[in-house]
Specification:
By secondary structure, this protein is α/β, with parallel strands linked by helices. Helix content is 27%, strand content 16%. The protein is built from 27 helices and 28 strands. The strands form 7 sheets. The protein has a 7-stranded mixed beta sheet with strand order 6-5-18-17-16-7-8. It has a 6-stranded mixed β-barrel with strand order 23-27-24-26-25-28. The protein has a 4-stranded antiparallel beta sheet with strand order 1-2-3-4. A hairpin with a 5-residue loop joins β19 and β20. α8 runs antiparallel to α11, α8 runs parallel beside α13 and α11 packs across α12.
Length: 788
């Protein structure tokens, strides 16, 4: 009997009208292509779509109901693709700055001239300063997750690839680094997504319980995880535990909702561990045979009994115990975790504790459990792509290399974002002379302490920005703006994690080029030996087969090229469960995990060797009711931020009329009782302020939020406003990153308190209104008091 929930594809959908070949013709000159939509624009997922193209333009988009991946379902962002692709404000041609930075004056130039300018600046920097003075930066990765690293390492010859001033690399990387250190591989909740037959595969078992921790998967659709898979499981009987300060749709339907204080996740996880061990609920066979350091973990967890953790987390002790028992009793159970794990000082120990919870209950790499996953066909889909082309002495010049052994040595080590900022400011250990920004908008979104980053970027002599639109970052800093193609305008490949999906070019937009084409053309100018491919298709074929660079028992490298993948649309390698028992995880082919001990390490030998705490631990956020009580008197609300919305992905889509009609203004959520005490009503514009700065957002009253917590939105700018300084599309006006901080990381270099700061909220009035954009541009905004 099929396990598939019948509602996934409605009965009245006639699948026969949707062809299974990769491309076909329909009436009136329309070509339909089955492919994957990733980015730009988009999210982290990469769903299967049908693009309808006529006369070189996208005229419609649908989800592909014949795809096992998302089974025809799409989110608002994909459904709005026609408006986005054909938006009149897209960059059409390469543009060179004609006036001063910030004046928003541009001159159209040819691609050859743009490449000449880049080549000249790079060669001058090589001669006068060395390759290390060039930094390649990107935003959230997605389609260019390996492109910018390969360009940086192999064309610019620099060790300095980094994210767009992301403090503590606090997005996914704390989790990936921790799992690599403690388990040898990343884990993903098993919703059957790695099986081509999906819910009908006889080897798969649905989880009895999914614990959703710091994640709203229905909206975020993070990193190859389609959130509605959770809904599919619920229809099949799966129960939920949700750990989240906010009442999400899933939390409202969970057996247990644990509404914790932002930034206290590690303490809560340790209370889970303590309950499970003391009540003897753990899987003895797995713990005794496949883990290292259980006794030390038990001793550490005993310091966090639920009764004491209640005061730390604001979660009732009995509720903690009941949820821990519920998870431990489920066979199988899994964890779906999100960005909130990373965006705190204790991102690493929180991730470590969650690895312990799932594994000690026997859920590692079993059907319906925590899949140990690698990229399909072992492709080089990470920030280390091309780093093998650098000599060791150049790698050791990477910014932050000696700051943290863990940050420098994990599988996708990049330059440390906070240290890149400090290097630009100080000129030490060497000057930064060039930034190559590939689809990142740091002052509007990624960079904490945005006014500080604005001032620093002004110091860099040469900046190139690749983006589909003119952004605040482009206007403020760029000397060259290169028009990036959308997903439907490029040939590329989607992995991360599984399966392997083709991205097929179906249309063009003026002179916009794909990131693949751009890095190939720059690379051929600067280092042709490492860019030998005649076109983007040849380059994609090479990349598909990069698994040969990492000889491991599983998965095997691909034996096909891009054209074969394009026609197949999706390729599903053979999935294996319980790989640790079969000798598939270790390079030596022996059973066990790819860790120094060959086991899941509760006591991490690598952490110990690097001088870090080898066990999970809780540490108070650097600014909190507990750690800074004096500050709390002045700023009496816990500020959390960063939740996804249906309409937007970080700073994308603000220029889309349909999306702005649905979500016109930045929103701050607060409890009605809190608002009443402050004289605030629904819809008021308010200032959110702390000792670093402030921004204005519009109030939404939310009865389910804790009265001591407010939630502010991120990523806001206003493309309808003037681009030239001091307005800069209003990028600082509602920028929650006026209040966050750079340089406050965990001891490993990872983690930053984006989601757990303090603030006060008060109504915007005519008397207290200020032009924040002008204050930042003129250098009079941002101040810090010492409360520690």
């Amino acid at each position: 009997m099929s396990k598939k929930p019948q509602e996934v594809i409605p009965k009245d959908v006639n699948l026969d009208v949707y062809h299974k070949e990769w491309r076909w013709q329909e009436g009136d000159g329309v070509t339909v292509t089955r492919t994957c939509q990733w980015t730009a624009p988009g999210c982290h997922d990469g769903c299967s779509v049908l693009f309808y193209e006529k006369d070189g333009k996208i005229v419609d988009i649908e989800g592909d109901p014949n795809s096992p991946y998302n089974q025809g379902r799409l989110c608002m962002r994909c459904l709005n693709m026609v408006e986005a692709v054909n938006h009149p404000d897209r960059l059409k041609y390469p543009m060179k700055r004609a006036g001063e930075r910030g004046e928003n004056k541009w001159e159209r130039i040819s691609w050859d001239e743009a490449l000449d300018i880049i080549e000249k600046n790079v060669r001058d920097i090589w001669r006068d300063y060395g390759p290390e003075s060039i930094v390649g930066m990107q935003g959230t990765g997605r389609n260019i997750i390996w492109h910018t690293p390969y360009l940086t390492y192999s064309a610019f010859k620099s060790p300095n690839f980094a994210l767009g001033f992301l403090s503590g690399d606090a997005c996914y990387l704390p989790r990936t680094a921790t799992t690599m250190v403690c388990m040898g591989d990343f884990f993903v909740a098993d919703c059957s997504q790695n099986l081509e037959l999906r819910y009908d595969d006889p080897s798969w078992t649905k989880p009895e319980v999914v614990m959703v921790w710091g994640n709203n998967p229905l909206i975020s659709n993070g990193d190859g995880f389609f959130g509605h898979w959770i809904v599919d499981l619920m229809k099949m009987g799966t129960k939920l535990i949700v750990v989240d300060p906010r009442l999400t749709w899933l939390a409202a339907r969970a057996e247990y909702w644990l509404q914790l204080r932002p930034g206290t996740d590690a303490a809560l996880a340790l209370a889970f561990i303590d309950t499970i061990i003391k009540e003897d609920l753990y899987d003895h066979d797995f713990v005794e045979n496949w883990t290292y350091g259980f006794e030390e973990l038990a001793e550490r967890a005993a310091q966090y009994p639920a009764e004491e953790v209640e005061a730390i987390t604001w979660v009732d002790a009995e509720l903690i115990k009941k949820a821990a028992r519920f998870f431990a009793a489920a066979k199988p159970a899994t964890i779906q975790w999100g960005l909130a794990v990373d965006t705190q000082l204790t991102g690493i120990p929180t991730a470590h504790a969650l690895c312990c919870i799932g594994s000690m209950c026997g859920n590692v790499d079993i059907p319906g459990g925590m899949m140990q996953v690698r990229c399909a066909y072992n492709v080089a889909d990470a920030y280390g792509c091309g780093k093998w082309n650098l000599p060791q002495e150049m790698i050791e010049k990477q910014i932050g290399f000696f700051k943290s052994p863990m940050h420098s040595n994990h599988f996708a080590a990049s330059a440390h974002g906070d240290s890149v900022l400090e290097t630009i400011e100080s000129g030490k250990p060497y000057p930064i002379r060039m930034l190559f920004l590939q689809t990142t908008n740091p002052i509007a979104n990624m960079a904490a302490e945005a006014p500080r980053v604005y001032a620093a970027m002004k110091k860099v002599p040469f900046i190139v920005n690749v983006d589909p639109f003119m952004t605040p970052t482009s206007v403020a800093f760029a000397d060259l703006c290169l028009p990036a193609a959308f997903s439907c305008e490029r040939n590329s490949v989607r992995a991360w994690w599984w399966p392997l999906k083709a991205i097929t070019k179906v249309s063009e937009f003026y002179e916009a080029k794909s990131d693949e084409q751009i890095i190939l053309e720059i690379g051929k100018r600067l280092n042709p030996e490492l860019f030998p491919w005649k076109d983007d298709i040849e380059m994609m074929s090479w990349w598909i087969q990069t698994g040969e660079k990492f000889p491991v028992p599983w998965p095997k490298k691909a034996e096909f090229d891009f054209n074969e993948l394009k026609e197949k649309v999706i390729s599903w390698p053979q999935w294996e469960y319980e790989k640790y028992k079969k000798g598939l995880l270790r390079p030596d082919g022996e059973p066990g995990f790819n860790t120094p001990t060959g086991k899941v390490e509760y006591y991490s030998t690598l952490f110990d060797a690097w001088g870090n705490d080898p066990l999970p631990y809780h540490e108070e956020p650097p600014e909190s009711p507990v750690s800074t009580p004096q500050m709390y008197k002045e700023y009496p609300l816990v500020l959390t931020t960063g939740a996804r919305s249906w309409e937007y992905f970080h700073s994308e889509y603000r220029q889309m009329p349909t999306m702005r009609e649905s979500h016109p203004d930045p929103i701050v959520e607060m409890h009605p009782d809190t608002a009443a005490k402050l004289g605030i009503i629904e819809g008021d514009w308010v200032w959110i302020e702390n000792h670093r700065g402030k921004c204005k957002e519009r109030v939404r009253l939310e009865p389910a939020i804790d009265p001591r917590v407010v939630h502010g939105e991120h990523g806001w700018w206003f493309p309808e406003k003037q681009g030239a300084e001091p307005v800069l599309f209003g990028t600082f006006e509602s920028n929650i990153n006026n209040l966050t901080q750079q340089g406050m990381n965990g001891p490993t270099g990872y983690g930053s308190p984006y989601k757990n700061n303090l603030c006060k909220v008060y109504k915007v009035t005519e008397a207290n209104d200020q032009d924040i954009n002008k204050l930042v541009v003129e250098g009079g905004f941002g101040y810090v008091k010492n409360y520690r």
